Automatic annotation (TrEMBL):
Xref: NCBIfam families: ExeM_NucH_DNase
Coiled coil segments of this chain: none
GO biological process, one term: nucleotide catabolic process
Organism for this UniProt entry: Rhodovulum kholense
GO MF term list: hydrolase activity, acting on ester bonds; metal ion binding; nucleotide binding
Any Pfam family matching the protein: 5_nucleotid_C
Protein known as: Putative extracellular nuclease
Amino acid sequence: MPELASTGSGLVLTAIVDGPLSGGLPKAIELYALEDIADLSVYGLGSANNGGGTDGQEFGFPPVSVQAGSYLYLATESTGFAAFFGFAPDFVSATAASINGDDAIELFLNGTVVDTFGTPDASGSGTVWDYRDGWAARNPGTGPSPVFDPADWTYSGADALDDATANASAAAPVPLAGYGAAAQALVINEVLGSTTGTDVEYVELYGTPGQSLAGLSLIVVESDAQSDNGHIDARIDFGAGDTLGTNGFFLVGTASVAQAYGVTPDLVIATNTIENSSYTLALVETASLSGTSVTGMETVIDSLGVTDGEGAGSFAFGAPVVGPDGSFLPAGARRAEDGVDTDSAADFVLADFNLGPANTPTAATREVGGDYADVFIHDIQGETDLADGTLVGVAGAADESPMLGAAVRVQAVVTQVMPGLGGFYIQEEDSDADGNAKTSEGIFVASTLAVAPGDLVTVEGIVAETGGETRINADTVAVDGTAALPEATVIAFPTATVLVDADGDYVANLEAYEGMLVTIPEEMSVTEMFQLDRFGTIRISSEGQLVTYTEIFEPGVEGYAAYLKEVAARSLVLDDGSDAQNPAEILVPFLGEDGTLDGGDVIRMGDVYTGLTGVLSYSEDSASSSEEPEYRIHLPQAGELTATNPRSDAPEDVGGSLTVASFNVLNYFTTIDTNPGSNNGPYNTGPGGDEEPRGANAFSYDGLTEFDRQEAKLVAAIKAVAADVVGLIEIENDPLGSTSLAALVAALNAEGCSYAYVDTGPIEGAMGGPVEGDAIKVGFLYNTETVSLTGDFAILDETVDSRFATEGVQRPALAQTFTETASGESFTAVVTHLKSKGSVLPGDEDIGDGQGANNATRTEAAKALADWLASDPTGSGDPDVLIIGDLNAYTKEDPVKAIEAGADDIAGTADDFVNVVTQYDPDGYSYVFDGMTGSLDHALASGSLAGQVTGATIWNINADEADALDYNLDYGRDGSLYTADPYRASDHDPVVVGLDLQSAPRIFTLEILHVSDQEGSASSVKAAPNLSAVMNALEAQDLGNDGLGDNTIRLSSGDAFIPGVFFEASAAVFGSGGIADIQIQNELGFDAIALGNHEFDKGTAVLAGLISGGAAGDFSALTGSALAGQDFTGTLFPYLSANLDVSTDANLAPLTAAGGQAPQGNSITSSTVLDVNGDLIGIVGATTPTLGRISSPGGVTISPDWEGTQPTEAELDALAAVIQAEVDAVLAANPGMNKVILMAHMQILGIELALASRLSDVDVILAGGSNTLLADETDRLRDDDAAQGTYPQFVTDADGNTVAVVNTDGSYKYVGRLVIDFDEDGHILADSYDAEVSGAYATDDQGVADLGAEDLVDPEIQAIADAIGAQIVATEGNVFGISEVFLNGNRSGTGAAGDTDGVRTQETNLGDLTADANLAAARAVDDGVLVSIKNGGGIRASIGETVVPAGGTDYVRQANGEIVDADGEIVKPEGGISETDIKATLAFNNALSLVTVTRADLVAILEHGVAAAPSAAGQFPQVSGVQFSFDPDLPAGSRIVSAAITDANGNDLDVLVRDGELVGDADGLVRVVTLNFMADGGDGYPFPQEAAYTDRVDLADLDGDGTADGTLSGVATFAADGTEQDALAEYLAANYGDADSAFDLADTGAEGDERIQNLNYREDTVIDAPALTLVAGTDGNDRLTGTDGDDLVVSGAGFYETMLGGAGADLFYFGDEALNGSRERDVVLDYEVGVDRIALGQGVEIAGIVQSGTNVVVYLDDPLGQDDAIYVRGSGVTAANIDFMHDYTFMGA
């Protein structure tokens, strides 16, 4: 009985009738009393007609009482009602019951609606609740509810009562009084699971018609009395579209049910979903399930146990148990009477194993008379624009049909018939397709009707979902004719996105093509055939075979998850379309002539399919319940299979005089398993004779047993390898110890071999105790003719080291020393077999990083193995050790790395082991698992043995082969496919190693790919990707032409980033400046980078964030890149500097790491040690000791202290001592290491050369910071570049050995490549340098093309560059000025006459322009500023471009070219100088500072600027308002020969230096604008620091609060006022803003420089006129008399002066005394017209000039009105011919 609803209503609407009699009679409403009702009058009814909305209560019940369980009937009249139903209605209302099939009904309680049928505001016509000439009946247990839910009702459908005269005889009678009846309980009604042939399986559910199964699951629970009892072996979750039919049935079954019984299941499941041993079948609430085993917390609806002999205690949920059937598992069971459930076995009878008629699978029937909606298939499939990672294949998921459960009718073309799947595929004709790429036009039809491809069919049925694939469960299928097949749709791999299935696994996103005929243009490689023989499937992948993640990448949870997505995006399954296990014919599409795998056919992993065409399905492997549903093509209709991976007859030649092999022989047992299966006996092997055999079974074929077949293949393989020593894995550990070994040796020697075995007996423990008794062990065979045993074997297990657990874990390791007969040399071989990734040990579960389960166990065992070997367990005294075997770990996993690190657990030290397989066969693999290749089998040589290894290879005879070809005969395998050859002798491939124990003195060839001063700028957008291509191309070359990997390292000598446009664009795009630069370094794969000076330019906090990954930002902007969505994680490499102590800086201290370790990301250290294929190489870093003056190193301690840029000999010695100490420490910590590389960022190449001669044991120096382009005679340089020295520079070190010093230009313009040989002592062999191979490789487009590297650009670097480029281009349209000429900001040139390059060595036009701009910005604030000085190092790029004109033969430099957008609109005009240009050239964007210095200070500042000349140095000045000459051959500090302060036209205002001597008052003051960096002492500039003295004003902090104002004014608002960038932008806009006023001063070489005159190139013309003799007045009234020469006559403070200049060109000066408020009357007695001049000081203005006889009176504008006057007398003097100099600055005044 339904419970009272929450509405409080005791009455509920239960049926509505629109009758078939004349006038639509009867029209009636049935109600049901849920409780006793004392007064029915509180209830009423109303009808809402034709969607017109509620009419309120139209009928009130009389005040009578009603008992619970009573039915009440209201009709419009009684005659028709009684005639139809046979009884009279209880109540009559012509209004409330006046309903047609589209009208709603409302039930009222005290005037409030408490129950509703239909929607009052909408007509029901054509809706699901349309009951015209029919009825609607409420489902038991639902309602009452004021909100109408159509799912609560069952409907007859329109016209269901037509032609009926009485309800009793109607075809679809009204189900009167059905609401209160007891609802049929939902039960498991029938199950079939084990039948003859391939199992036909189904589960039949029975319950109340229309009942939804959503939220329920059907589970199959393991019920054998074994350890996995209670495991949920299968689970089927029901979705919203899964409902019981009108007959109360729902059928879950395999596709084969349709073939066996002609009944199509409502939900299709995979074969073997139901156990073939004892199981419990249960229907439970999905939400109550947790994990993969029964917990006891499940909410169980019904359950049934089926047993083959286990007792009731083995079954879950207290289920009734049926069986066994004799001694066998019953085929299944069915209820004796449908739905009758007493929870006892007596309810059931056993099913028929032989598929007889007693088995009665019944599928759901649908509502009688239901209409089918005419739709297109794309309507059913719905739009599937699914985002990456969308969940699919489960109830309610995004891929579910929007029409799930709907009755539909479609007409379409049959594209493929799949009898093995119980139906066929159809697709819309091309003309009916909707053209939407996101909707599928195809669908599967579940039907047994015989159709053929090309048939045009009309299908009526119900939309359903099975395993994530949308289908139509057909009710009817009609063939209408034939039609052309639709055109196959092209799908591309890898897919752009992936989906997630119910288990969280990724699958390619092909949902938009589900059910469609598709074609794949890409080559698809065979990557897995493990299921081929049993289930008929092949996995294929795009872009070659899939590789195991940890074979090529370091383990990591995020990385592994991302990689699995990539694998899924490349993957597809080919399926034979059969539901049969172990098919008689193994179908391999397009193999041979018949597409079947027959004897002699060969298909191998890596073979390629092209042009595959077929229907795409999303479904389970039709016979394998171990696979989740995924996309597959069943029986492709077209395609081609090409054998691209042919077999080889023997392994590749590994050289040497001795070979060692490792071979996992996959359970070679002479003890036969006579009872096939696991854990079912016999138990007659192992040391104690109590283990079950794991090898060959007792099957035979054509006279050969499985053992015969296995042994023949193994013998063929081992004989072909012909190794002198063979390590065996998975050989029987029989009670006698060596029975299987003896049998294998006998079989080999019968074939002409000469093997013996190491007789260990049964391996029970190293001390002879029964520690463990595994059925398998490791062992050795050896060729008695070539080697002999030396000493006893040794065994490692937990009795030796508790970390090497063997009991139930891994097999004991076996070591044996062998001696080569020919040479007498010995080595020790160790064969080991570590714990597998299966059978998880407690606490060592898979953490999702790609290493699988039990990784910690394997790693600890690996460490124990390394420690054990360090103890020389065989007592050989020989350090030569080779570890071989199955480590159950891939190449990059922790156990392998643990062995490689040796006993000290520190990689890069002398006791390391070398993985010689990866060294000699880097792309090799020994195993395929889950379709991915990788090496579980390894060979690792000790450091001493590694140099004696001549080669190593993996012979792919097993992993690449289909297991259908192996020796097994289980599962009814076709024995005729077997051949007695090596192929598929096992599942692992043998590893083969060559040894030459008499190797000649060893030469080590090292390839160093190096760069320096990357310093990202606008040009890097092009140059950085190109550089990646060049580096990749160079590393890809096989230098020795030997097929072996080269010994390549990648290094950078510093300045990986620099503030500027690239840096700032990174902040805009990725969140922080520098992220783009650092990630580019990561992608370039540098092993280490030296700390340069520019790393510190933004301070140590910024540097720390970029190294640690703490800098805010991510790569979400890189959509489509492998980096997309990843967080920035900092450096993958260490930064190095031995002479910087970063631990004293709070920001950098946490990043400090000890020197001499293997490279660690996110760290700063003094040195690192690289393991380059077994050779250790020390890398030491060093940074210029001038760092504190040229950058912002914070609290970093710098050693040693240098006074200036050019170090003294003593300072060089001090630096060399610091570096030498680090070199010595690294070598001492690694006794086997003898090669050291120094990365020295010294900024002047001469310093690196000087260090080379002072150091010991340093072999190569990578210079940095100077951008010196070294090149050899074969190097092609970029247009516009010239070599500045020879590559390399060979220097003799302190010990007389040769050191190679190399450098290249920066900005990603070149890759340096040094390929050099080292002798055994680690000294370089200079004669090995080959200019055809080594040198500077340009990274321009030609450089890329020359190497054929166009396709080798790193995609992530390209993505970063594109994003940065877009950001820079966005700022290119912000143009401030025009230049007609190339503005030269190049850092250094050749020094040759006419070379204009060298903003760090000479004046340039760009240096002048930006210095002028700074002066103009300063004078806008303080017009007393006279001089602008900045450092050339602050100019980071030129403005302009270098091109070869059309038809030209040489490059030219020119102004910027025009830039247009995609629409051809001008973004930047020709010659335009943009925001980007300004940011690039003034990348540091220093603020401007005004300071007052003495004349002597100014000279000292200029002296410092040229102190490093002729070497390029960042301190070299660029100036405005001053002019000077210097002689670089004079000692630093005394090089200025002439200097003068000048006006805007270059006229001298004040001579500072003449003939090298300071002229005038040394303490005279000059107002100067400079960079705040320099004002603080940056670049070593000696600006005074006394605040009171300098009167310093920082233009970016005018309020002086210590915080930049951040003011943005003027036309340029991209940079703050008071900064260099703003100054240049405003100056350009004001003076060179358009083409008419364009800047046109072309740059010259040093011979044409005017402001800074290098006297090695030109004459000195600094001082404009002959020198003036100073004649100065005093505080009194003076009579001043000049000389016969040129005089400067200066008025004193007196109020009456007379001046006599005498002969010569005299200058009469009047300054501040004219403004002091005292009346001044001065007389010039002998002014010579045209010769003499009158100079007026700053601020002195003329009020008027009056001619008075022979005198001219010049009245001055005294601010206090004192009428100061100068009386000028002389021959011919007039008011018009006196020459005045205004704003004259006299520094000596």
